[in-house]
Each structure stands twice: as C-alpha cells, then as structure tokens.
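Design a sequence for this backbone.
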C-alpha cells in the first residue's frame, strides 16, 4: 500500500525532483532555526556530511512529531570548501564573494535525506558530490550574476547547476540529484522497500 509522504522543506527544487519522479509530497516546512542547530555542533568535530544529516534529522523529526503517523522526509545540504562550511549568500555582493572564493577550486556538496515517523528517524543517507569550478575572472562573475539574478541566493554555492551555472565548472563528480539537493536514487529505493511508493 502506498502512502503520501511529507516533505519537511520549502525547497521548490526538491519538490520538483519528487514530483518528476512521481512522488508528489505534501509540503510542510520544518519550524527550526538551522543556525542554532549548527551552533550546538561547534567544537564537536562534526563533518560537513554529519552537519547536513543532523539538520535533515532535525527537520524530519520536528515535522513528524507535529503530524503523528505521517512519513516525513527531511533534507539539508551543506557546502564544504576544505575545512570551511559555507552557508547561502545573504545578498548579491555575498554571492560575488562566494564565486570568487570557489573560483579555480574544488568544493563538496553534501546532500542529506532522512525519513522519520512519530518524531523518530529510521533511515538516512548523505550523497556527496565534488565540483571543480574553473578559474573565473572577477568581471565575468559580475556579468554572470547580473544575467542570472537573485535566484543564486537560493543556493549555498551561489549557482544553479541546472541553469547557466553549469558554465562555471570544469569537472563534476557525483550525481545531478545530489548536486541539486536530494540524493534521489537511494531515497526512492528506500520508499519502494517501505511500500510507500509502487515498486
């Protein structure tokens, strides 16, 4: 018997991926302060992958506690550049600085998915993608951001790989879904195994 899942995220990209895969979720964004959750992890040695998983768990458990019996999917994505964990740019100037920092370097995107029911998690997966940005001239960065506009503020890397942002890269290792923010193939397998979707 299949069941309709709850997506504990307001991300239009994650919803679009699930819709395209035939898994139309109910969207109920989690009511958590992500920066406060991250603050509790400072000094613990948590890896960027673990931070993504912990944030995804916080979202999934918060929503599943409010909606007993429902199958809830929590997601989060972190970007790591060396040992540094980066967050979404605050404004276009911050986006410009982000692209300058990523220019000519390799960074990792860590996309976590967690399933929970009744406030308890029972499955998780973190997909990791490695992206090498080509060397970007500052003037090009300015022109690029002027063309694509503030949509880049929705992305931790200040780019949309599914749009013109693909032109920023020399090399990508990892699957498209992980890069966009959801390790979709492992999630679909688990949903089939649970009988939540037709398999």
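Sequence:
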């Amino acid at each position: 018997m299949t069941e309709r899942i709850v997506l504990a995220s307001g991300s239009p990209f994650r919803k679009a991926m699930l819709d395209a895969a035939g898994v139309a979720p109910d969207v109920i964004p989690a009511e958590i302060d992500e920066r406060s959750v991250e603050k509790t992890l400072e000094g613990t040695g948590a890896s960027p992958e673990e931070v993504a998983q912990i944030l995804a768990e916080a979202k999934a458990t918060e929503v599943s506690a409010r909606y007993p019996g429902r199958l809830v999917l929590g997601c989060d994505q972190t970007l790591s550049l060396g040992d540094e964990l980066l967050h979404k740019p605050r404004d276009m100037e911050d986006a410009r600085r982000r692209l300058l920092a990523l220019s000519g370097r390799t960074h990792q995107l860590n996309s976590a998915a967690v399933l929970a029911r009744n406030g308890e998690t029972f499955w998780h997966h973190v997909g990791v993608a490695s992206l090498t940005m080509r060397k970007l001239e500052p003037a090009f960065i300015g022109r690029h951001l002027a063309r694509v506009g503030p949509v880049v503020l929705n992305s931790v890397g200040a780019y949309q790989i599914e749009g013109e942002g693909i032109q920023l890269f020399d090399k990508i290792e990892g699957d498209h879904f992980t890069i966009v923010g959801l390790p979709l193939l492992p999630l679909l397998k688990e949903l089939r195994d649970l009988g939540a979707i037709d398999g």
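The mean pLDDT is 94.
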